[in-house]
Design a protein that fits this description.
Elements: H1 14-17, E1 27-34, E2 37-43, H2 62-80, E3 87-97, E4 110-123, E5 126-138, E6 141-153, H3 155-162, E7 194-196, E8 202-205, H4 224-239, E9 248-253, E10 263-270, E11 277-286, E12 289-299
Antiparallel strand pairs: 1-2, 2-4, 3-6, 3-9, 4-5, 5-6, 7-8, 8-10, 9-12, 10-11, 11-12
Protein name: ScbA protein
InterPro entries: AfsA-like, AfsA_hotdog_dom
């Protein structure tokens, strides 16, 4: 454990959560409670160019996934000594949030994340793998749960694994035509991550390497957060409903998504026994192989906020 950073702090360095823009940094501090258990304080933006409120008055549920991702990296770097230049890959991430607890109005944006780390493994004295489980609360009210499985790879080992793919760093990626923003609950074309596919239920991943939130720095592969957003937008298109609110998501990644080959996002609605929810299966396929599998679940009816449209996004 890095004693220089142990305990509560009022400032979370961007390199600890792999974010360059202060507006994109979700955690605000952390405290060790006991061995392998931590409390992370976080603040959700009430207005953000990308993570803006949805369904009129709800925080974007994908903020839960981003909070899990950043809290995991924060603990790994600050408490387990993972060097900031290590590559950090999440092979699995899941969350389940209370849709009513996501309401923006009348509550603060302060979130507390109780983090338990398990299944830790090391190689050469450095953390390699860990699993985290989390409970999120807001104003003392249960907000949701989450989990993630992550691997840390040294910069040298990563270069060896990726080989010639490292040459893709900074290489321009042709920006394909987007689907109309309003169809995926976005106001700005730059936030649309899907383009037309070749058949119903299929879209091509749209990669905008100039997007400051999705690409914080030049990358040699598609960031996982972009794939999560692609899954969400594909689920919205599949259900033809602007009110699709992904309060539950379970995603597993099987390989890196490359920048230079089309990645196809394919969906199907999953029949369920609960009419109160709608579940969509989303798969990313590249070169004939699956990149990720995910299940997204939304309440079948999302109450509309008074005076608000069915889905509100701030232009930012």
């Amino acid at each position: 454990m890095d004693q220089n950073h142990r305990g509560a702090t009022a400032h979370v360095p961007g390199e600890f959560v792999h974010r360059a823009d202060p507006a994109d940094i979700i955690p605000t501090g952390w405290t060790q409670l006991r061995e392998n258990r931590f409390s992370v304080s976080a603040r959700w933006p009430a207005a953000h160019p990308f993570f803006s409120p949805v369904a009129g008055d709800r925080h974007d549920p994908v903020l839960v996934a981003e909070t899990i991702r950043q809290a995991t990296m924060l603990i790994a770097h600050a408490e387990f000594g993972v060097p900031v230049d290590d590559q950090f890959v999440m092979w699995g991430l899941a969350y389940n949030a209370d849709p009513e607890a996501l309401t923006v109005d009348g509550l603060s944006s302060d979130v507390t994340v109780d983090v338990v780390c398990s299944d830790l493994s090391s190689r050469g004295g450095r953390l390699r793998d860990l699993r985290v489980t989390m409970v999120l609360t807001r104003d003392g009210r249960f907000l949701g749960t989450g989990s993630a499985l992550a691997r840390c790879t040294s910069a040298l080992a990563y270069r060896r694994i990726r080989g010639e793919r490292m040459a893709a760093l900074g290489t321009p990626v042709p920006l394909i035509k987007e689907v109309p923003p309003h169809l995926v609950n976005r106001e700005r074309s730059r936030d649309v991550v899907l383009g037309p596919g070749t058949r119903p239920g299929q879209w091509q991943l749209r990669i905008n390497t100039a997007h400051g939130t999705l690409f914080r720095r030049p990358n040699d592969h598609v960031p996982g957060m972009l794939l999560l957003e692609a899954a969400r937008q594909a689920a919205v298109l599949t259900t033809d409903g602007g009110a699709f609110l992904p309060t539950a998501m379970d995603v597993s990644f099987s390989r890196y998504a490359e920048l230079d080959t089309p990645c196809w996002i394919e969906t199907e609605t999953v029949p369920g026994v609960d009419p109160a929810t709608t579940t969509v299966r989303v798969v990313g396929v590249q070169d004939g192989r699956a990149v990720f599998h995910s299940l997204l679940t939304s309440p079948s009816r999302v109450p509309e906020a008074a005076g608000a449209g069915l889905v509100g996004r701030l232009a930012g």
